Amino acid sequence: MESTVKPKKQSLEIGIIGGPFDRITTVLDEFEPGQKDFIRPLESFDVKPRRVTDVVEREVEIKVPARLHSTVFDMNRFNLNRAGGGGIGIGIQVYFNAKVRSLKEPKFVLKGERTLIMEHFCHIFKELLGYPGGFEIELQDHKRRHVGLGSSIGSMVAACIGINEVLGRPFNGRELRRIIGYHSCEESPHGNGYLMPAFETGMGAMVGVNGGWIIGTDDLEMVYRVPLPDTKCIVFIPDVPTLEDEFTGKETAAESEVELLLRRARTLDTLQTGVKAQLVLYDMIPAMIKNDLRGIGNTMFDLAFLGSKRAECEQHGSYGAPIYKYISTFREIGAEVVGMSSVGPTIFALTRCDDTYDRVLKYLHSQNIPESRIIETAVDNVGSRIIENGEERVFTADGWLQG
């Protein structure tokens, strides 16, 4: 007879090194979905309290674009108890799909993938709103996990939008982003049925809700967004030393990822955040206003070699040489915007030129890159969709939900 006793919860202790006098330790504790001390009251992250006490049975389907996270602005501005740091994100036509139903019975029926994360957010909404009913959620992610394509945050966004919708929209987009940001989590790397808190900039929620190319600042605030019309995207997952098995991300998740974010990445941001801020303010934002894709890409190329993005590229071996080889090659081929997403190793190229798009693909095929590692897609300029009773509507089309 198999034992039903859950394993003892564990912790990860990560020594933080930022500036020359910055030596502290961050501890990531495992927790169970719904554990009360991992649910924060709304007032603690600047959202006004509210209640949902009526249960109306309702079902919606949610479609959320995946995000590419081009860079974080300053990794010294976030920790487990403080979401933020700012950054640049972009939505692509690779999707998360969720079906969410409200139930009169106070139970959770969870199907598909990322069920631990889904369960925790069901508890969060019940606790924050005093909701007496339950939820049924079926979720499918895009199957590329821990490689920089936002599999966890996209799942959270899809679930939260769906729950928010079936409850009658108690929260707007900005408020949902804050709920997600201050409760962001991942499955424990120990695979024992527990979760661990995660570090969150808010870019995944901004992009998942709004689509397009977005600049976000500290404390999860969205500064500026523009659509990138007629823009194709090639996403490529290179074979680098940090990937032991395709798409599993064994060496890019959890402990090693946290060590990267809180050590060398913080040190480099301490030295170079000012330069990064100038590039964004003086070069990237004007290019966004003019819809100048090449100008956006010129700034993005410079940012790829600065601060925490440099540290993220370096972790993939040979001081970043495998990553910078592809970034530089795509740029020389003619792609207007190139970069590595999040901690990688996913690399992306954006272009409005069909010939450039074909030449990037031709180059990848010449390197004998498996088709399973190449995603041919385009920029998503719409953001989240809600499908109910066969009708689709865009989340941000309703002014109440914008933000």
Structure commentary:
With about 400 residues, the chain is an alpha+beta fold. It has 10 helices and 16 strands. Strands 3, 4, 5, 6, 9, 10, 15 and 16 form an 8-stranded mixed β-sheet that branches. It is globular and about 60 Å long. The model is unreliable at about 245-255 (pLDDT under 50).
Distance between the termini: 52 Å
Molecular shape: globular
Report the radius of gyration as a whole number of Å: 20 Å
CATH class: Alpha Beta
In the predicted model, the low-confidence regions spanning at least 5 consecutive residues are 245-254
Order of helices and strands: EEEEEHEHHEEHEEEHHHHHEEHEEE
Total of DSSP H or I helical runs spanning 4+ residues: 10
Q: Give the second-level CATH assignment, the architecture.
A: 2-Layer Sandwich
| Tally of domains | 1
Largest sheet features? 8 strands, mixed
Q: Which fold name fills CATH's third level, the topology?
A: Ribosomal Protein S5, domain 2
Number of strands: 16
Helix content: 25-40%
In terms of DSSP E residues, the strand content is: 15-25%
* Helix/strand class: alpha+beta
Mean pLDDT: 88
Give the secondary structure arrangement, pairings included.
Layout: E1 11-17, E2 23-29, E3 59-72, E4 87-103, E5 108-112, H1 115-129, E6 134-140, H2 151-166, H3 173-181, E7 185-187, E8 195-197, H4 203-210, E9 213-216, E10 222-226, E11 232-236, H5 254-262, H6 264-289, H7 293-303, H8 307-314, H9 321-333, E12 337-340, E13 347-351, H10 354-366, E14 374-378, E15 385-388, E16 391-394
Parallel strand pairs: 5-6
Antiparallel strand pairs: 1-2, 3-4, 3-15, 4-6, 4-9, 7-8, 9-10, 11-13, 11-14, 12-13, 15-16
Helix pairs in contact: 1-2, 2-4, 5-6, 6-7, 6-8
